[in-house]
């Protein structure tokens, strides 16, 4: 995210060109089940904390004397990101000299109120110190390394996460041709390895915009980089999706698939700079619900407090109006957070390895039992015919009720047939079919008990509890008819 510069305006125009597929997001809020009113939290941060997540905002040091601004921020949020005060131009204004005064002002304000802080950002093509402009090649590479070491040494052990690298890809999935890219294609890897050595405890994130639509070239470019990093042991813990939704860039119908797919690589995901044109209630509810449905989506940050504080203020994109009043979108987000309730998140293990939770462990074999019905996922009449619809039935321990979660996220039965989605929309049949490695045969077995399709992002769902009830796909809603255990 940029400051009030021409670079920011160019970024907005670029983002507005990307037209995501508009989801039927009204279904998210319509299907959510609210807990008892006495248990519902009344602020965004408290509601998110119920499921082990955070709900944050970006803060500007220059607004900390505004009592309306600070009172909302202190009341509503439990994670803070500095808008510009921790970026390279702010922290390294002159060669060999660091300035942390503005960044520390935000850090101190947040931590004195019990909030955590995300660092943003260490390496970026924009908002670089002026003196970087005269460097190139190995000299610029060393300047980046020195900057990362200096800034992270100052905040070592203090922050929840760092956006180590920001916005390094083009829209087609290729690398952005920045001065940092010109130092060598490995510059992002060097940045992450340097950051890990500088602070072994903090989460290290890659952050970008226009990576919300799973089928978009930029999304795939970032995904392939993360997959490569994880395969080679390059230290990366999380991916930040900025989630700037404009009139031309709406909530994609496959947004949850994107989150699940990144998470399946063994990284956390976070929505880091959220704002939505006219604060569309359906989009805010949809993006929040999608995060709640993915166990490794650890939190959401909106980019600013009130509309008047936003870099897109004319679009009124935030949850509070210019006067600090809650908007309809605020209520939709709060309801979605409260509906998630306790125990729906899956924190990264304390060792920082990003290892999957036990429910995600490949090689597990057993029954898939419905939480509501107590009955098993069953292939009728022990059929092995392609296209046989899966149902619920009394558990009997037979092979037609024995499923194995493979390393490629398939759920197999009889060793050669896969659980298969016949489509990606609500009501699509769930059947068995010869294993083919396609996304409609890949499943995320989540710590909250849901089983979600990688292709669709939707949950395994049944509309009844009796023998013979057929299994389908449907928007995840947190109800017991969408929770299963593999045991």
From TrEMBL:
Q: Which Gene3D superfamilies match?
A: 2.80.10.50, Glycosidases (3.20.20.80)
Q: What Enzyme Commission number(s) apply to this enzyme?
A: 3.2.1.8
Q: Which GO terms describe its molecular function?
A: endo-1,4-beta-xylanase activity
Low complexity bias: start-end ranges: 341-366
Write out the GO biological process terms. xylan catabolic process
PROSITE patterns recorded: GH10_2, RICIN_B_LECTIN
Q: Which Pfam families match?
A: Glyco_hydro_10, Ricin_B_lectin
**Record carries keyword Membrane:** no
The alphabetical list of record keywords is: Carbohydrate metabolism, Glycosidase, Hydrolase, Polysaccharide degradation, Signal, Xylan degradation
Root EC class:
hydrolase
Q: Which reaction does it catalyse?
A: Endohydrolysis of (1->4)-beta-D-xylosidic linkages in xylans
Q: Where is the GH10 domain?
A: 38-336
The UniProt annotation puts the region (Disordered) at 338-369
Domain of life the protein comes from: Bacteria
Read off the InterPro entries from this record: GH, GH10, GH10_dom, Ricin_B-like_lectins, Ricin_B_lectin
Q: Which family does it belong to?
A: Belongs to the glycosyl hydrolase 10 (cellulase F) family.
The protein depicted here goes by the name Beta-xylanase
What species is given as this protein's source?
Actinoplanes teichomyceticus
**Taxonomic lineage from the root:** Bacteria, Bacillati, Actinomycetota, Actinomycetes, Micromonosporales
